[in-house]
Amino acid sequence: MSPGRSPSKQLRRPSAASRTARRPLRLAAGLLVALAAGPAVAEIHSHTLDNGLRVLVREDHRAPVVTSMVWYRVGGVDEHRGITGVSHVLEHMMFKGTQELGPGEFSETIARHGGKDNAFTGQDYTAYFQQIAADRLEVSFRLEADRMANLVLDEEEFAKETQVVMEERRLRVTDQPRSRAQEVLRSVAYDAHGYGHPIIGWQKDLEDLTLDHLQDWYDRYYRPGNATVVVSGDVEPEKVFALAEEHFGAVAGRGEEANEARPAADPARGERQVDLRARARVPYLVAGYRVPNVPAADKAWEPYALELAAGLLGGARSARLPERLVRAQGLAAQVGTRYSSLSRGDDLFYLEASPTPGTPLSQLQAALFAEVQRLAQEAPSEEELDRLKRSMAADEVFERDSVFYQAMELGRTVTSGYDTDYLDNYLDNIRAVTPEQVRRAVAKYLVPQRRAVVRLHPRADKEDAS
Amino acid sequence: MRPFHLLIIAGAALVLPAGAPAMDLPIRTWELDNGARALYVHRPQLPMVTVQVDFGAGSARDPENRPGLAALTFNLLDDGAGDRGADAFARALDGLGAKLATGSDRDRGWVRFSLLSEAETVRQGGELLGEVLAEPRFVEQALERERRRQVTGIRKDREDPHQVAIKAFYRAVYGDHPYAHPPEGTIEGLRRVERGDLKDFHGRHFVGRNATVAVVGDLGAERARSLLRRTVGRLPAGEPPEPLPEVPQQESGEQVFVERDISQAHVLMGQPASERGAPDHFPLLVGNYSLGGGGFSSRLMEVVREEHGLSYSVFSTFQPLARRGPFLAGLQTRGDRLGKALGLLREEVASFVADGPTAKELEAAQKYLTGSFPLRIDSNQKIVDYLAMIGFYGLETDYLERFTGRVEAVTRPEIRRSMAERLDPERMVTVIVGGPAARDSLDEGER
User: Fold this and answer.
1) Closest alpha carbon within chain B to A312
2) Which of A149, A180, A269, B93 sits at a 20 to 30 Å CA gap from B29?
3) Is this structure's pTM higher than 0.90?
C-alpha cells in the first residue's frame, strides 16, 4: 500500500513495472506560493448530453496524445456479502465482447491504432481508459459507447475469466502477507459496509458469482446517467463534445439519475485490534481511523485539516514519522500515512509501519500512536505547516506533467460525487487551514475509539532462511 | 551537436494519416569540463525542471564480498550532505518543494531531482544537488540506520514469491558474473560494509568520466549549462570504470524449484540474451511484442490467459543491460495447474523462436509500436528516462528520431534470425517457486 491519492484498486492487466523512488512520494496537492507557476489547475470544460452522460475535458498540448476515460459510479462500496467482487469481474467482462465485437477485439482494435488500454476498479468507481494518439479519439469513443450499451455476457467467457480473477486474487492477496493484513484491517474497521470488503472479492463470493449477478450489475449501473467521460490531452473541448454527441448520444438513458448511494457505515464504536500470524518475514503494522470525507464532515475544513495531518505525519521526507521514528529513535524501518478527503463513503486514515530488527511491534505501535497524540495536543508551528503546503504546491505542478494523471484526477473527483469545483477550490481550502484546525481535527478524529489495528507477525515456518 | 527535429514519419505502411502532427524534440548534448556527458531538451510548457544523473555504479560494481554496497551508497546520498544532517536536508528539500530520489540497478546508480523552475528555487536546489553528488556525509549513525532498512527490505522480499523467483533466476543464470547477485545485496554482505567502503565507492565512481546527466524542462540552455556546472561539474574527472566481463554462454538448461508455502506457482524462464545498443534491438523488440510483450495482443496472453484462464499475468520481455541482460518469460498459476501452464509456456516460446511471428502478427506489432510512439515521450519524466538511457548506454542521439522507421523496417526473417541467435529454449533456466501442490503437478509431468 503506498501513500497517494488513489485508493487500492485492481488493474485488469498488470501494469509494467517502473522505477520507483526509494521513499514513497507524496500526497495530495496544495497551495502554490511561488508565483512563477501558472494556474494551479488546468481549466475544466464540461458538457452534459441529453441522456445524462457528462463529458469533461482538460487540454494539454505538449504532445499529440490523449487519455480518454469512462468512469462508472459503481465499485466495492456498492457490494455486499454474497456478491463482493462483482464490480471488478464485470470490469474484466467488459473486454469480452459486445454485439459488434468478439472477445478481445476491443483491445486489439485499440492496439491497431497505436493505443494502450486498461481498466481498474476501486471502492467507489470502475474506470476504463485508453492512451492513444489525439487524432484517434473517435475510435475510443465509438468502442466505449458500444460496450456501454451493447455488452454481451457469455457463460463460457465468464467461467474462464473468473478463474483469471481468482489467480489475480492469489497473486495480489493470498500469497502476499501485507495485502492480507490490509484486507483484514478493512474487514474489522467496518461492519457490513462495502468498504469492509475487498474490491477483488472474497474467494467464496468469486466462486458463487453468476452471470445473472453481472447482468444485473451492468443493467443497473452502466448507464449514461451514471457515467462520466473524461478526456485530457491535445484536444479542443468543442470538438470532443461534438464527438461525444455523435457516439454516446445514441446510448439510451435508461433513467438519467446517477448512483447517488452513499452507504452509511455503522458508526465506529470502540477500538479493534487484531494479531495476525502469517507467512511474513518482517513484522508489519497497519492502522486505520474511521474519519469523514468532505460531505460528511461536521465542519467544511475538517477533511482538509486531516489531509494536512497526514502530510505532517508521513507525507514528505521531513515529516514527523520519518524524522522521529525512523531517524531519531530508530524504531521504524518504513513508515507512512494515507488519507484522501475524496471518497463516496467515510474512508480510513491510514498509518502503516514496519519495525527495525529487534524492535518489538508493540513498541513501534506505541511510538506511532504517541506521535498522533502529540499532534492532537499541540498544534504544529506555522513554519512546519507552511513547509508542507509549499511541498504540496510543487506536487501540483509535477502532477500536471502526466496527461494520464490529469484525466485520472478529474474522473475520480466527479465519480466520487464531488463537483469539479472541489479541484478548483482545493488549494484555497488547504491554504485556509490553520495550525489549530489541524490539531482540532486530529484530536477529534484520530482517537482510539475510531481505530482498528492489525499487527502482522511472522510465524515460525519450515522454510529455510534463504 | 546541432539540434534536430523528430517527426512521425507518415508512409503507406503506417496507419497514421497524412498530416499526423510532428513532434519537436530537439536534443542538445555537450560535455562538461570533467568529462560528464549532458543531454538536454528545453520544454518550457510547465514551470518545472527534472535532472537525472547516472553513474556507472550499479551492483555489478559491488566489491565481491560486499554485495549491496552500491545500493547502500545511493540510499545514503540524501541522508545528510554538505553541512546538513538528514533532518536539515529533508527540510531544505521540502521547503523548496523539490523531489529527490536515488536508486540503483545492476548497471547504474542514479540521482533524480525535480523542482520548480523559478530562478531562486533552481539556485538553492542546485546547491542541494551539488552537495548530494559531491559531499555526501555517510555519517556512521545513518549508515547503521540505512543498513538495517536495507536488511529489513531483503527479509521482506522473502515474503514475496516474485522476488524469490527473480533472485533465484539471476543467480542461476549468471552464476559467478557480477550480474548474479541482487542489487539490494545480501544480509552478510551489507553487514561487512564500513564507512570507509562507502567513501571509497563514492570516490571511485562519482566522477565526471563515469557520469551522464539528462535535463528536461523549463530551463534555457545557458541556465541548464550553469546548473550542471554547479552540480555535476563539481565532481573530479576521474577514470571510467573497467568494462564488465562478458556473460558466458549458457551451457545447458536447468530447472530450479524453490519450495514456499504459497497457493500459486511462480514461473520464470529465460537466459542471457541481449545487450544495450545491440544491432538487432528492433527485431527483438518487434518480435517480443507478438510473443509476450504486447499484452492482450500477444501469443502468451492469448493462449495462457484468454484461452485457458490459467494466469492473470503472463509475459515475455528482453531486459538488455551493458552486458547480455536476460530474456524472461513468466507466469503465475494455482499450484496444481503448474504442469499444464508450464507446458504451454514452453511450447509457445519454442514455437515462436523456431518460426517467428505470422505476417498478420508482424503487421499488428508494427502498427502498435509506431502508432503508440508519441506516448513514449509525452511527459518530461518520460523524456528524462530516455535521455538518461541514451546517454548512459551511449546510444545514438537520433535513437528516438529513427524509432518508428526502424520498427517499420523489421522483417519476419530478421526476427527469426535474431531470435534464433539469441535464444535457445533447450538451454533456458526455469525457476519455479511453489508449494507442495505445485511440486506434485511438476512431478506428474506437463500435460
Assistant:
1) B94
2) B93
3) yes
